[in-house]
Amino acid sequence: MHHVTRLYRSSESTNQRILFDIDPSGQHLGTGGQDGLVHIYDLQTGQWVSGFQAALDTVNGFSFHPFLPHAVSSSGHRRFVIPDDDNEDLSLSGHENCVSMWSFGLKEDGNFMDQTESENLDSNS
């Protein structure tokens, strides 16, 4: 068996499934991890291309839109909290156990814009 490539994912200490997706062009792979980040890799080189904070907890799902520059991520993990006090607030923030939709820019060569390029594009709109 021939090993093609190996990509880092932040998922060393969980048995939770962490899904990935390949963009419609077949050039990039997107995946989540326990660090709350989405990581984008170039499938030709195996190199990390981009990443962004998608949640405060585990990003367990990521999927590219089939033809628009959009993607969705899902986050969440089981929490086993035993409250010490009846007054303790156990509510989640808006960035935990959520589904988020992302819009991103692509350069003419099909690569992802870095954060500065995307911010410049947004400010010129």
From TrEMBL:
Species for this entry: Arachis hypogaea (Peanut)
SUPFAM superfamilies in the record: WD40 repeat-like
Name of the protein in its database record: Anaphase-promoting complex subunit 4 WD40 domain-containing protein
